[in-house]
Amino acid sequence: MKILVINCGSSSIKYQLLDMEREEVLAEGLVEKIGEQGSLLSHRTGKEVIREEVTARNHREGLRLVIDHLLKNSGGVIKDLSEISAVGHRVVHGGDAFIESTLIDEKVIRTIRKYAVLAPLHNPPNLAGIEAAMDLLPEAPQVAVFDTSFHQTMPKEAYVYALPYEFYEKYGIRRYGFHGTSHRYVALRAAQILRRNLENLRMITCHLGNGCSITAVDRGKSVDTSMGFTPLEGLPMGTRCGDIDPSIIFFVAEKARLDLAEVNEILNRKSGLLGISGVSNDVREIKSEAQKGNDRAELALKILTYKVRKYIGAYAAVLGGVDAVVFTAGIGENEGLIRSEICRGLEFLGVRVDESRNADPEKWQGVISSEDSKIKVLVVPTREELMIARDTAEILRRRGSD
Questions:
Q1: What is the pLDDT of residues 199-225, one digit of tens each?
Q2: CATH at residue 48
Q3: What separation in angstroms does the CA of 169 have from each of 173, 174, 176?
Q4: Chain centroid to CA 34: how far?
Q5: What number is the average pLDDT over the span 25-52?
Q6: In the predicted model, is pLDDT for residue 371 greater than 60?
Q7: What angle do the packed helices 123-136 and 59-71 form, to 10 degrees?
Q8: What is the pLDDT of residue 73?
Q9: Same domain, yes or no, for 85 and 17?
Q10: Which of 40, 192, 261, 395 sits at a 20 to 30 Å CA gap from 217?
Q11: Does 401 have pLDDT greater than 70?
Q12: Which of 219, 221, 141 minimizes the C-alpha distance to 180?
């Protein structure tokens, strides 16, 4: 069974074709600058990498290019489109309508479109990818895998805001959470690495990249998460501010004479690590500047590690104890110094990091805590595409058994 996984952004298509018998990536790539002059395509099969300038005026043309490369005589990984059993789509926002991945039909499309008001930068391109795939691969079932669905197990006290209740009832204002596919995958993988039953584990999963979120996972279910109504809430991120006093919005708007759209732009694109450091939203560049004595760069890193540590402490209370802390995504997987600083001060919980393991997590199957650590600390590379493919394959199997 071969599953094509598609993740569409506003001007991009990220994709993987996976053979689900071995869970092997047959091909993967990225179409960038869709709708712009000089679109780019990167396509990898094994060790062979193709990079070329292409024409992709919309997502349909971009996906057509992807399919052409999958079929190419030289470097192609399929001979016929019928080899693609199904297409799995990442969809950012499913609201509270979807508690699990689902086969796409007209009703599902209408619901995704309905929630575009809550994710205007994400759901419309997600839909563009769905519509393009349905057009170009009409025989392949299409499956939607939602970033929000994993968090639909949160109790009401965790997701309802202390606002007038009719805002929740009328407008759907509540905590939704994001990065759910990543949190779900690394929780499952951590349980496998630890050789423990997921249903007996309490975990805190830390997805730390340009976007950052933390989730309290109780026996495989999300019970709280740091991102909220939008991905702006929670930790400071590459360019997002994370948690702030809401009154700041009105104060800044008045003092700087900005309208709400301008303030929103600042909070989402000019804040976070970029806003604090004044250097970059990239932790690698910020680290380099901090090592040169840049105080603001050093402060940005301290704020990030402090806030992550603070959330871990809070979620330890939510869970009533912790068995494992898991780091994933760009920063979580690659920045040993950041992991070390986050865990420094968590000794009271029983966290002990072995710095030799922290320097080379892969050598230790991702376990970077010392043997005597009460709480296991792991580094687990996220594989969201694999999780999407697994869900898609499972829906196909269910469909075949009906």
A1: 999 999 999 999 999 999 999 999 999
A2: 3.30.420.40
A3: 8, 9, 14
A4: 22
A5: 90
A6: yes
A7: 50
A8: 60
A9: yes
A10: 395
A11: no
A12: 221
How many other C-beta atoms lie within 10 A of the C-beta of residue 153?
A: 14
Could you tell me if residue 47 is inside a domain?
yes
25 Cβ contact list (under 8 Å, min separation 6): 16, 17, 18, 385
Gap between the Cα atoms of 253 and 262, Å rounded: 8
| Same domain for 202 and 62 | no
Give the C-alpha separation, 277 to 261, whole Å.
23
Contact (CB, 8 A) for 274 and 210: no
Pairwise CA distance, residues 338 & 62, whole Å: 37
Q: Is residue 147 among the annotated active site residues?
A: yes
Whether the pLDDT of residue 74 is over 60: the answer is no
**C-alpha distances in Å from residue 366, one per residue of 311, 328, 359:** 22, 10, 11
Q: In this predicted structure, what is the pLDDT of residue 95?
A: 86
What pLDDT is attached to residue 49?
87
Gap between the Cα atoms of 343 and 361, Å rounded? 15
The reported pLDDT for the residue numbered 389 is 96
Q: 19, 105, 147, 323: which one is catalytic?
A: 147
Is residue 180 in some structural domain? no
Tens-digit pLDDT profile for residues 131-180: 999 999 999 999 999 999 999 999 999 999 999 999 999 999 999 999 99
CA distance 333 to 208: 8
Helix axes 295-319, 283-291, angle to 10 degrees: 130
Closest CA to 125 of 35, 18, 222: 35
| 96 pLDDT higher than 90 | no
Q: In what order do the strands lie in the sheet with 2-9?
A: 48-54, 39-45, 24-32, 12-19, 2-9, 84-91, 142-146, 102-103
**21 shares its domain with 127:** yes
Q: Which residue has the tokens 């030289």?
A: 74
pLDDT the model gives residue 6: 96
Its domain, for residue 237, covers 196-384
Residue 359 neighbours by CB under 8 Å, 6+ apart: 336
Check residue 122 and give its pLDDT.
Answer: 86
| Nearest in space to 272 (alpha carbons), one of 303, 293, 298 | 303
Tokens of 48: 């062979």
